């Protein structure tokens, strides 16, 4: 199915090609976060930085809090390709203020996306279902599979932050008054399973989901419009709080997702840093790549191989002609 692994051959390529590590970039560490989109980005970065910019890059395990802390306190790793900054905003702000961290650019250009969704085939049949008013009016089209006397809204699993925000919006939108019951799917697998089962059978489904994810890459879903726009202040001060007593409806604001580097890396390798500032995926692009990963049971290294071999239309926009030529030669030598 695959050519020789890009990532497995990185060290050999770096050692034997004219693109081997040089003083302007040198040894760098890239955080390989423990979710698919971030792992894909980390492996793509390693290939491009090694073969296009003469770096000697390696991946190390990472996660949001420990990685950001280590970058501030120890100056390593050099790059966190996909940092959801809402979770560690105060820490990131401190690192930037102390000139230890640099925000390179948006790794997800659309930001992390959250919302209440319905299948597109339902909206195609009845466009009003793209609005919360239409959903409430036609609540009986969404029967609870366990009790069809009530309608089903699939919320976030217990313990997730979106359980709070989703629950508060369920209340603010008065969905219970419309006949809906808030269902806890129990886990991420339970939530995705409920959606995929409904979609494969052409059934109704209404609930919370987020992007980029494989599910939204595989299934054509429509985000329901609350008719409110985004009220950032309401969202941050009440919707996200467990003690929000009188929530007001608002659409979910995008979650900023950035590539973060140490200032040391930005200074010693300005050309490589400029690449990390340009490297960005839309949610539609990432959804599709994640769906490919799931369908092919691929990890980050094979996803990077697929991406580099088949999506030059995307990555070539992040580099200049000289770097592109080096990357194409590296790909040809695999």
From TrEMBL:
Pfam families: OpuAC. One of its GO terms (cellular component) is ATP-binding cassette (ABC) transporter complex. The keyword Cell division does not apply. GO terms for molecular function: transmembrane transporter activity. Residues 1-20 form the signal peptide. Residues 27-308 form the ABC-type glycine betaine transport system substrate-binding domain. InterPro entries: ABC_Gly_betaine_transp_sub-bd (IPR007210). Keywords: Signal. This is ABC transporter substrate-binding protein.
């Amino acid at each position: 199915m695959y050519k020789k692994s890009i990532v497995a051959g990185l060290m050999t390529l770096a050692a034997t090609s004219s693109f081997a590590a040089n003083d302007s970039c040198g040894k760098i560490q890239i955080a390989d976060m423990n979710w698919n989109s971030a792992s894909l980005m980390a492996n793509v970065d390693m290939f491009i930085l090694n073969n296009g910019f003469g770096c000697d890059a390696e991946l190390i395990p990472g996660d949001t809090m420990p990685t950001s802390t280590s970058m501030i306190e120890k100056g390593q790793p050099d790059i966190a390709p996909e940092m959801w900054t809402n979770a560690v905003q105060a820490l990131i702000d401190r690192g930037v203020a102390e000139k230890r961290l640099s925000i390179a650019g948006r790794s997800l250009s659309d930001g992390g996306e959250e919302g209440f969704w319905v299948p597109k085939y339902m909206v195609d049949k009845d466009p009003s279902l793209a609005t919360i008013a239409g959903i409430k009016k036609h609540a009986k089209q969404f029967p609870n599979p366990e009790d069809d006397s009530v309608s089903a809204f699939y919320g976030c699993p217990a313990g997730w932050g979106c359980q709070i925000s989703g629950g508060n919006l369920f209340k603010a939108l008065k969905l219970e008054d419309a006949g809906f019951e808030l269902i806890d799917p129990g886990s991420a697998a339970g939530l995705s399973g409920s959606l995929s089962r409904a979609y494969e059978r052409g059934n109704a489904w209404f609930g919370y989901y987020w992007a980029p994810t494989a599910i939204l890459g595989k299934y054509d879903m429509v985000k329901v419009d609350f008719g409110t726009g985004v009220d950032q202040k309401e969202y941050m001060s009440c919707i996200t709080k467990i003690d929000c007593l009188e929530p007001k409806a608002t659409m979910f604001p995008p979650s900023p997702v950035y590539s973060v580097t140490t200032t040391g890396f930005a200074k010693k390798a300005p050309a490589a840093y400029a690449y990390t500032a340009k490297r960005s995926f839309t949610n539609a692009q990432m959804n599709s790549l994640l769906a490919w990963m799931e369908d092919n049971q691929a990890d980050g290294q094979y996803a990077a191989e697929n991406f580099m071999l088949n999506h030059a239309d995307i990555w070539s926009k992040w580099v200049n002609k000289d770097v592109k030529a080096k990357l194409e030669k590296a790909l040809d030598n695999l």
